[in-house]
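Hi F.,

I've been meaning to write this up properly since the lab meeting, where we talked about keeping a consistent format for the predictions we share between groups. The idea is simple: the sequence comes first, exactly as it goes in, then the structure tokens exactly as they come out, then a line or two of notes. No screenshots and no reformatting. I'm using this chain as the first example so we have something concrete to point to.
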Amino acid sequence: MSLGFCYSSYLKDKHKCMEKAMHTNCPICFEFLFDTTKAIALLACGHNMHLGCIRQLQQRLMYACPVCSKSFCDMSVIWEKVDEIIESRPMPEEYQNVKIWILCNDCVETSEVSFHTMALKCPKCKSYNTRRTQAAPAEPAASAESAESAAPAESDASSSSSRVE
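Output, unedited:
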């Protein structure tokens, strides 16, 4: 695929190719990227923006792509610190079994997790770059009906965990 511009040969097999990625504005300063003379950064998610604009985000402690919300740098050290903070601050007993649904911005998985006021961790990729969703992901109609008929009815009083929706 011809993109109409050149990336470093170092990036040849190390980036997510997005057609016409440079024929757009920088999502931070809105300057048209194809005509710019400023240094451009290619994020792992495939979005481009000025390197100086990314540095401004980092100075404001923002580490997610402003277009798709995926983390644009290694956050593992930060996530370990968040793990420590959460471990040192357990939820009150009445909230310990509360479950909520989240969407992970990094791996795009929807999961049910234990509620915590500090942060919500993705069980798949271990990221805290998540957002709370309203409910479980929608299932295809046929499988949802068969799952309902196969599962025993459960009353709210006998449920061992609470749901926040």
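Notes:
The beta strands are 40-42, 48-50, 98-104, 110-114, 130-132, 162-163.
Residues 76-88 form the longest helix (13 residues).

If this format works for you, I'll send the rest the same way.

G.
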